[in-house]
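The record is passed on directly below:
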Amino acid sequence: MLLSADAAANTGAVGYLYTYGPLVLMFVVLYFLLIRPQQKRQKTRNLMLGGLKKGDKVVTIGGLHGTIMEITDDICVLRVNDATKMTFDRSAVNAISKSAAKE
């Protein structure tokens, strides 16, 4: 009778492992495949936006190419051609195409 009680207790512990193990494994896989890469992309984007400076040639999210003429904490003024200046949110910048120091 004592042996059957130990066997029943071990079966219950193994049952929990089989029940919740796949859920934990699924969460770990989703973390490494979805959440962690997104956090890395967000970190590199924030570093890029923080490093913007006057004279950088940038591309906006809408695909507009321009050169930064003025920049504040949240506003960025781009020179599109010789006469046209456009104001954008700093977060609308998608990528830096060239830096003023590289030219």
Remarks:
- The longest strand covers residues 65-71.
- The first helix runs from residue 2 to 50.
